[in-house]
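Customer escalation, tier 2.

The customer says the design service returned an amino acid string that "doesn't look like it belongs to this structure." They asked us to rerun it and document both sides in this ticket. The original structure tokens are below, unchanged.
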């Protein structure tokens, strides 16, 4: 598409993370649709502050941008392997899980192959302008009929740590950007999910460059595994997302809590490698307690130490493993592996009051479009912001291609991708279609 052409687009995508890249790849064959996807970054980067050499996907490489909606797409991971002449090598390397670095290469390759992609383009404001949506960006204006929001999640910083953010107190999402040298420091890693485990693993990698002290503080009662068992994996299927959608709101909240570890635990392979590394460091390198494990412990406060260089953490211990109650811990650095949360993109501010956000959450329809009080022919779609309606798979790659296919079908107004009624071992889908139709017409 020629950017000088100022006529109205059919689709404008805000953000080019994997989720909007999936939609862009699936919309690409629909050449009748005028489409642009924009991202403020200079090129494709997948959480590059955490892109370690040894990080692997937590899911099968078949859960790529397109395969689960269209196995014949030229934008699959297998197509990327073929294009880069490494198909046989990939098979014989027999990785238990593909590397996140390789998936980043793959995503980048897709982003470079699609004419609709614009990097270095920050979306500043979206407003209603007559019969169209006006998109103001750092590189000029667009008009569109539909917007797909793929702005991702924002790092969550505990309130007590906010004023101390800097070279020695930072969110894990910036880890590799900080060029942090752990040698000789007393370090606290806060959090009990996959990211904290990956950071602990990095900090124990080189026995000669270890921190002086390493404390791993987690609210959870232990360092708990991701549940990757077969029946639990069914929560990461389209059939379950659709079934989940039909449940009463209270039941959905209860299930999200109950299923938390299915999406937020630590990979069992990483847990085993950490356990082995602690063994090696203790018995083969003679390092007594290379990592001080503090499960069942919550960070509740933080202040400067007496020397003004260190930090004194206040923690609340729930279990009786280390006693109970408040404890103090003095450290030189704090790495916050405290998760990510959805926040309303600033560019939506001009329309914020017109988009339905009861209890702070979007009213999301089954096809991921949003309820709002603007004209019906102008639509917003949302990704990574529908856990409350579509379930725990929402932030995960597992349903990315399916959701991308749903959005593409909805935008096209026809079934471009035949992705409904996928088989499930459970009978969830027996009444789902009828129930969704009821909800849609209510
Ligand atoms: C370290 C890490 C590893 C993960 N690994 C896995 C995994 O192995 N398996 C799995 O299933 N899930 C994984 N996830 C979860 C999920 O798949 C990723 O978080 C994924 O990147 C989410 O994609 P997204 O497109 O929603 O957001 P993001 O990847 O965060 O992309 C959002 C993009 O929007 C852009 N943006 C935001 N606002 C604007 C604006 N106003 N204008 C222009 N651009 C804007 C940002 O620059 C960014 O590039 C992982 C998450 C993390 C943090």
């Amino acid at each position: 598409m020629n950017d000088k052409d100022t006529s109205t687009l059919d689709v404008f995508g805000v953000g080019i993370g994997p989720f909007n890249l999936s939609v862009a790849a699936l919309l690409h064959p629909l050449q009748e649709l005028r489409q642009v996807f924009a991202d403020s970054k200079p090129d494709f980067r997948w959480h590059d502050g955490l892109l370690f050499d040894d990080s692997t996907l937590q899911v099968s490489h078949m859960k790529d941008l397109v395969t689960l909606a269209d196995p014949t797409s030229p934008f699959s991971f297998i197509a990327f392997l073929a294009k880069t002449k490494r198909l046989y090598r990939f098979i014989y390397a027999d990785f238990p899980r593909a590397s996140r670095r390789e998936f980043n290469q793959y995503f980048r390759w897709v982003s470079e192959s699609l004419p609709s992609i614009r990097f270095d383009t920050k979306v500043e404001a979206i407003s209603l302008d007559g019969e169209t949506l006006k998109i103001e960006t750092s590189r000029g204006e667009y008009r569109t009929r539909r917007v797909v929001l793929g702005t991702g999640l924002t790092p969550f910083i505990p309130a007590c740590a906010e004023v101390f953010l800097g070279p020695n107190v930072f969110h894990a999402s910036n880890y590799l950007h900080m060029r942090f040298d752990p040698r000789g420091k007393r370090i606290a890693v806060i959090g009990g999910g996959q990211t904290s485990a990956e950071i602990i693993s990095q900090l124990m990698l080189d026995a000669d460059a270890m921190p002086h002290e390493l404390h791993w503080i987690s609210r959870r009662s232990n360092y708990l595994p991701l549940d990757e068992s077969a029946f639990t994996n069914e929560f990461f299927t389209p059939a379950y997302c659709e079934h989940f959608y039909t449940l009463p709101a209270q039941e959905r909240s209860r299930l999200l809590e109950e299923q938390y570890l299915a999406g937020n635990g630590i990979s069992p392979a990483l847990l085993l490698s950490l356990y082995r590394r602690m063994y090696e460091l203790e018995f083969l390198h003679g390092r007594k307690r290379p990592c001080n494990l503090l499960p069942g412990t919550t960070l509740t406060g933080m202040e400067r130490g007496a020397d003004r260089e260190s930090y004194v953490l206040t923690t609340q211990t729930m279990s009786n493993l280390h006693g109970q109650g408040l404890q103090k811990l003095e450290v030189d650095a704090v790495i916050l592996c405290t998760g990510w949360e959805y926040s309303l993109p600033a560019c939506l501010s001009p329309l914020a009051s017109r988009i339905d956000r009861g209890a702070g959450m979007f009213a999301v329809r089954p096809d991921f479009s949003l309820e709002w009080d603007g004209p019906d022919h102008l639509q917003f779609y949302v990704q990574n912001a529908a856990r409350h309606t579509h379930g725990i798979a929402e932030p995960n790659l597992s349903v990315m291609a399916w959701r991308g296919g749903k959005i593409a079908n909805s935008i096209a107004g026809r079934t471009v991708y035949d992705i409904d009624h996928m088989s499930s071992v459970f009978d969830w889908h027996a009444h789902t279609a009828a129930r969704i139709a009821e909800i849609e017409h209510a």
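Tier 2 assessment: The sequence is consistent with the input. The mean pLDDT is 94. The longest helix spans residues 268-284. Sent an explanation to the customer and offered a walkthrough call.
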